[in-house]
Amino acid sequence: xxxxIVLVKYAFLGILQGITEPIPVSSSGHLVIVQKxxxxxxxxxxxxxxxxxxxxxxxxxxxxxKDILSxxxxxxxxxxxxxxxxxxxxxxxxxxxxxxxxAGVVGILFEDEIAETFKDLHYLAGALxxxxxxxxxxxxxxxxxxxxxxxxxxxxxxxxxxxxxLIPGISRSGATIVAxxxxxxxxxxxxxxxxxxxxxxxxxxxxxxxxxxQVNELLIPNxxxxxxxxxxxxxxxxxxxxxxxxxxxxxFAYYCFALSILLxxxx
Length: 267
Fold this sequence. Notes:
Blueprint: H1 2-20, H2 27-38, H3 47-63, H4 65-81, H5 87-117, H6 121-137, H7 152-163, H8 172-182, H9 187-209, H10 219-246, H11 250-266
Helix pairs in contact: 1-2, 1-10, 3-9, 3-10, 4-5, 5-7, 5-9, 6-11, 7-8, 8-9
C-alpha cells in the first residue's frame, strides 16, 4: 500500500511539473504550494528536480526540433560562407546566447539565497500576483518584430526578465514572453525566443547539478514521474503555443490573481 502511495505521489508531481513548466503560472511555485500545504514532496535533494527539468527540456527539444536544426544549419552556413541570407539565423542564435547571460550570472551567484528568502507562501502569493499583473498588462500586444528584427538590446531585456524567474512564483515563460511582447516582438517570435532560451538555461542547470544526482531505491517512481513530465510538458507546450498566438494570455493572469488571493487568505 505504501509503495502504491509513493507511485501516485510521484506520478502527480510529474504531471504537475509537465503541465506547469511551459505555461506562465510558475512550476516552481506550484511545487512549493503542494509541498507546503499538502505535504507532497520528495526527499531526494536535487535528484528529482533535475529529472523533471530534464524531461521538460526534452519536450521543448522535440517540439522545436525543426527550428533548432534550421537555426543551427543557417548559423554554420553563415560562419563558413558569410552569405547574407544566413546572417539572420546566426544573429538569432547569438542573441539567444546573450540573453542567457543575466540569468546564468544571477543563478550562479544568488540562486540558493533567493530560493531560501522567497520560500514563504506569502512571498509566493505576491510573486504570483506580479506575474498575473504583468500578463494582464501585455494581454493585447501583438508586436511587429520578427526573428530578423531582434537587436542585442532586445536580447538583454528578455534575458534580464528571465533572471527574475529564479524567484518562486515568477514564471520563466511568463517573464520572458511579457518582456518580448513589451519590446515589440510578434507573438510567434516571442514564444519561439522564450522557449529556445529555455534550452541553454535548462541544459546548463542540468550540467551544473549533475554532481548532485543520485540513483536510489526510488528508480521506478522517478521513471514514472519522468515519463509523465515529458508527455505533459509536450502537450502543455503545444496548447500554450496556440494560446500565445491567439493572444489569450489574460486567462493565465486571472489564474495567477485567483491563486495569489487564495494563498493570502489561507496562509
